[in-house]
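Support request, please re-run this one:
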Amino acid sequence: MAGTAAEVEESLTNALSLLVNLGKVILQNAKQEAGASLEQFVPNKITTMFGLMTAAADFYNRIGVTKKSDAESAWAKSYHQAAVREGVENLLQLENEWDSFAVSVDEGLRPAETQGPKGSTADRLSGDLALVDARTTEAVTLGQYLGKGQSLLLVLIRHMG
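Re-run finished. Output below.
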């Protein structure tokens, strides 16, 4: 973003405001569609949420960056301005609302008998959990990797399709 400091801050504030407002509208639409039927929302209506990607891409273009870390650097330079700070706080609040919505959709789709007690997923995983080793395509169990005295990076991919 080129221009005077005031122009940069105004441009950033306007871009943040537009992103937050569009994000709220898209979230409200997604909540309404999910509220009508979660079973229909995921396969048929989840594309409503893709509008947020377009809004974020437009935001990045407006402020002249290509990734979130660059956007964070851009607004950090103007964070001392109340309007920029408010816009960033509104964006962070919107991110929290989206996260909560995604969690509620995920929890709403799980059958009651699989929801189980609250706690971390790691507390509920069994060593008998069947996995596929991505390097060898071999069928393995989680227990084969646990307790070996090594650090373990385990990537679990859930395909929704």
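The chain has a mean pLDDT of 81. The two ends are 39 Å apart (CA to CA).
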